[in-house]
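Friendly challenge for the regulars: who can give me the structure tokens for this chain first? No prize, just bragging rights.
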Amino acid sequence: MRANIERVYKEVSDRLDRVNFDNIWPLFTPFPFALYNSEIVVFKGALFPRDERFFANTTIEYDGEQIAIWCIDDCEKAIDYDLLAANIVHEMFHAFQKRAGETRFPDDLALLMYPKNPENLALKIEENCLLAAAIYADDAERKISVLQTFCSIRKFRENLIGDFTRLEYLAEVAEGSAEYAGFCALSSLSPAKALSLLNSYCELISNPAALQLNVRRISYYTGMLLLVLSARLGIDIDRNLRQSKTIYELIFQEIDAGIMLPPCQTLDMTDSKAIISAYEAKVRSDIDNFLSLSPDLICGDYKIVGYDPMNMRRIGDQVICTTFIMLENLNSGSIEKYFGTTFMRMKPGESRLVEAFCNASTELW
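First reply, four minutes later:
Bragging rights claimed.
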């Protein structure tokens, strides 16, 4: 296992040496990275036991420097080293964002309260289909025409769900930019794999499925595709990470989006209603099944201070997280991290304040 993870590290390092980071984004440079599994970490050629700092695929501060980390669960499986290197570049871009002072991050916990509005979801699906269509449009004039309609729908949705659209645009900045960096790296390593990835993302965002309700996840794809389109159209957006405008706003200030069009009078909300109904039923079922295990419910005043946004779902004031959560006891000031599945009953209408929770294992790291 040790030899295998060292081999993977070398294969990724060799590929990263071939990536021109400054061509991806001005001032972007490679960051140190670590690979790890359940037992060991490899970093800068050294092997050492894994500790609690190495969790998930992300960027962390390690020994005074920002690094990218990636979990290799099973080195015995076939690994696509080009794709892995691109994923590492994604996390390196997050390290770059931190170093550069990026502030355009969404409130992930507020995103869990994203309205389950059938009209908004139907329009969002239509909007995403237009974004994919713009990628495939034959010429610049057609691409811009499609994007103008795309923008018109977004403007309408802004009136429909208010500030939640701003959270969408911020998620496109935070994750779409990093996904774009990884895509550009993959394009230099294997153009064929990059094209396949682009096609898969266009298919994903066009599909009327539950992903459309996962605003954070789908923003990886929409944010990346917007940046790909801006590059193909020669729209030179401001790449300074210390600004307030989002990718969407920077691109569309260069395009005359025209007037805001009302939605089609015959807007079909069949798919969106079914998606919302299935999502809510699944979340309720998961919560009910977990609570049926009779874990002890702990009541008090708590605040969420650490979380895994990719594995949290909310319905009403109930939240279920399947990986880990960090809660601060607002009375004692103590902070504890719980692994496994955790249920939380939030204070009504609050995104971070918890009035009761339970964890199946009550395992603390």
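The chain has a mean pLDDT of 93. The chain has three domains: 2-81+91-99, 108-252, 293-359. Your move, everyone else.
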